[in-house]
Predict the 3D structure of the following.
Amino acid sequence: MPELLNFDVAIIGGGIAGVSVARELSQYNVNVVIERHGDIGLESTSTNHNLVCQGGDALSFRPGTLHAELNVKSIPLWPRLADELGFPLKRVGGLWLIRDKADFRRYLRLYSRAFKSSLEPNAPYYIPEGSFQPLEFVDRKRLLDMEPYVTPNALGALYDPNLCITDPVKVAKALAENAKANGVEFLLNQEVTRIERQGITYSIYTRQGLVIKSTFVVNASGIEVDRIAEMVNARNFSIVPLKGTLTDFDEEVGRLISHEVHVLPRMEDMPHVRAVLPNIYGLARSGIYLELTYRSDRVIREEAINHNIKVAKELFPEIPFEKHIVKSFVGFMAYTNADTGWHDFVVDIPDYVPNWVNIVLGPAGVSASPMLGKKVVELLMQSGLKLEPKKGFDPRARKGVSS
């Protein structure tokens, strides 16, 4: 007989989306996180730029989207989270290089929107005072003071002093450990193979022999989100799995680059991201080379590595990046609205499948994670989940999660 467990809320997926929800719910009643791996944050959470989109960077997202809303509302939450949970968070700022008048005109529109949106109290995405510094244009001389090895093709830059870097895996583990210390149960090494719906209750079956019964389910399964949703006919969205390749360079290169530096892609660059930045441990990172391929395709292609080196050398031509490669790695992200060319998050309950929340994040998902948990809890309460604040919730407590 399979082992039967009962919970109020089951969260499928132990990436940053799932544990953000778990940590938020740990302030209330007990729930469970089901993860097919033996640790937290081993898939998309571990394979990204390590950026926390702040200020102008977040406000560059399409206005009116959930993508923009969750990122902007997360800005003031990050410093407090880092303080409570002790994960690394460092402001490095971003430099968006201006090569010609076309770049300047695009950045001028962004500058106007970001400044207005961030400082006016009645703006839709108002950010509390003290959590955001306005963007500014810097000329060539100031740019060289900030990044001495930057390309001579840059006439100046739009400077966003708010951009941060972190270690998303450490963030996810900190959220998970705090959730566990406050009563959340984690079931690791459990691969979901089947889900049955009985009215408003769900039975989740794992390959390892568990049956989890739950009234509410949060589908935070990352790149497998569509496959999990299809188990109960809850897929009311479409995604394209995008494979991304990034390349890390050693500390010798890392010491020469202080900011996130990038250029806006042009038609010949699409769909790739042309950026170089330091990481939280003193290395430098370049990419992203994007491909549309099978989810099982984890091959690191020479073409992708060469692209990342080329991008780095275009931005910093004096640095011999090819001699300082530490590693290249791939990850997948879910991209929505591929037919229209712009991405938005999905965080909602399908009309025809009660008590089930789908989460699709994709690009900038790490940045939006603090507000994501609050959004999902709000949806669950609207669906009838009764929540009462837990006495004794400790925002700083930690308890190990890995198997």
Q: What stands out?
A: The two ends are 24 Å apart (CA to CA). Residues 101-119 form the longest helix (19 residues). Residues 3-46+169-239+342-382 form a domain with the FAD/NAD(P)-binding domain fold (CATH 3.50.50.60).
